[in-house]
Amino acid sequence: VDISKKNLDALHGKIKELGLKKIKLIYGDWLEAEVEKCDVAVCAYSFGGTIGTAQGINKIFEIAGKAAFFISPYASVQTDFLTGELYIKMGIEPPSFSGDYRDLLRLIQNQGREVECKIFEYDFGMPLASKDGLDNCVLYLGEKLGLPPTDLFKEHLQKIITMRNGLYWVPNPRKSAMIIWKGRSETNDND
Question: What's the mean per-residue pLDDT of the chain?
């Protein structure tokens, strides 16, 4: 479920590329979306809209039977693709989420849910088939991050780009929190 058609189109392309089945994409608002019950729910980096409200979080618990995983930014300031220094050079304030994982954790705990929280780091970077794709990468990331597609931005990407699995790799290390809720077990369902 996403309110961004662009994100869903990109996800649809990846699903098709990987030949995945049984994945339903829904364009719309979380609270209005009709979703089926499932064993496991995963919600990652998407708590800015109605999904990040008490009502939205509760809906996740209602549909998830065995577990729910909430993956949230560790900090509220967004400096994706190692752009912290770049924002400073451009004189632009980096975007911020309205909160961080602690706000989400409080929201969940206020609903009386027992959860576990783990902090981790992962590289959410993106591959490029060749350096020729760098100009398109500058345009795409410029739009995504709210940065003008300047030579300074291109120089930044050229500076951070590495090789990974035979492809050029634009790193995007993120520190995140995973909040884990273990749902009802089969033996407790009748209690």
Answer: 87
